[in-house]
Design goal:
heterodimer, A: 255 residues, mainly beta, eleven-stranded mixed sheet, five-stranded antiparallel sheet, globular, B: 111 residues, alpha+beta, Immunoglobulin-like, four-stranded antiparallel sheet, three-stranded antiparallel sheet, 2 helices, 42% strand, DUF4198 (chain A), signal (chain A)
């Protein structure tokens, strides 16, 4: 399936530098941990352009939590500094003590993006199922902005659609724009047009969006809105882009 | 016609039940093994047979699930030295197991 992408990632990177999408990333070692897999999950936490594997600096986040069975635990102190895509990021090994869905979430520090003349704050999360129990897969964390999954955010086949509701300040966002990008971690995918590095879908009047993935792997969905407040950069008030990012893994179908 | 409806009803019921996969989880707490079961729809089975097997896959204990889908039994350190397999059957097509590894047992028994 990946062969449908016809030109190389190198060409895309050379010609598409103005269109790179930023993504907060939380990538687990496995989105579905069975008892045979062990009793923990490893997380890789970064900020990047995931298709081009172009890393950016992720400073110590404002918060990093896990939510399981209605209980949220602060994991900020458990993050280990690491180099991811050539830039500072974090890793974490988290013990899974009980079955169910663990939702890992991060609020990063505002990132100043000169090219966009604005700050970027991507509230990022991912869902991990432990021990074949999917209880809690549709958990809404109550983040300032987030994508609440309507499709179970793990155990999806490549080609399945993913649906979610874009929420901002606790309300669905009608007609929200959602950017979708593939984490090109094995550097196999390439695109015939820069326009296909980051695809965009719009939510309906209820904030619900739908996207069907062409291949297996990790896919990031980022719903972007502008915050009502501004932040100062060099004494000048600048806009703040609020991103609701969710990372979802799609599995390869094997006949 | 009534016979056809009866067959369809049985098929429908069987399909529904099959869709509710059984999940088994067990842990050690205060030197007691706690077994928890749940269907994938969140409901607990109200009855079932629990077999405890040692590393040689020999049955060392057979118990019945409580009506809340759990069962507890004292940890036998000798039988559990190399871990335990806990098999639960709640009906046709509804079975699952959990392997308590020596590490799981050590974590919960204060070793």
């Amino acid at each position: 399936m990946k062969s449908i992408f016809s030109t190389t990632i190198a060409i895309a990177a050379l010609s598409g530098t103005t269109a790179l999408a930023h993504y907060g990333m939380i990538i687990p070692s496995d989105p579905m941990i069975s008892q045979e897999d062990g009793r923990s999950v490893q997380l890789s936490v970064s900020f990047s352009h995931p298709f081009e594997l172009d890393g950016m600096v992720l400073e110590q986040p404002v918060s990093f939590n896990v939510t399981h069975d209605g209980e949220t635990t602060d994991l900020l102190g458990a993050l280990n500094s690491s180099d991811i895509m050539g830039q500072p990021g974090f890793t974490l090994e988290y013990p899974l003590e009980r079955p169910g869905t663990y939702v890992f979430s991060m609020e990063p520090k505002p990132y100043w993006e000169p090219a966009e003349d604005s700050f970027i704050v991507h509230h990022t999360k991912t869902y991990v199922s432990a021990f074949d129990d999917d209880e809690g897969w549709d958990t809404e964390l109550g983040l300032r902005t987030e994508i609440v999954p309507l499709s179970k955010p793990f155990g999806l086949w490549a080609g399945n659609v993913f649906q979610g509701v874009v929420m901002l300040e606790g309300e669905p966002v009608p007609n929200a724009e959602v950017e979708v990008e593939y984490y090109n971690e094995d550097v196999n995918a390439s695109v015939p047009s820069d326009l296909m590095i980051t695809q965009t879908v719009k939510a309906d009047a209820n904030g619900v969006f739908t996207y069907a993935t062409p291949t297996d792997g990790w896919w990031g969905f980022a719903a972007l809105n502008t915050a009502p407040e501004t932040m100062q950069h060099d004494g000048v008030e600048k806009a703040v882009e609020l991103g609701a990012v969710i990372w979802v893994h799609f599995e390869r179908w094997k006949d | 016609m009534p016979r056809l409806l009866a067959i369809l009803a049985v098929v429908a019921l069987a399909t529904t039940a099959q869709a509710h996969q059984l999940n088994v989880f067990a842990f050690v707490e205060d030197k007691t093994v706690v077994v928890e079961t749940r269907f994938s729809n969140g409901n607990h089975p109200v009855s079932g047979t629990v077999r405890i097997l040692n590393e040689k896959q020999e049955t060392v204990l057979t118990l019945s699930l409580e009506t809340d889908g759990t069962v507890r039994f004292p940890l036998d350190r000798d039988a559990a030295a190399s871990g335990l397999t806990i098999e639960v059957k709640t009906g046709e097509g509804h079975d699952d197991y959990w392997i308590l590894t020596p590490e799981d047992i050590a974590r919960g028994s204060g070793d």
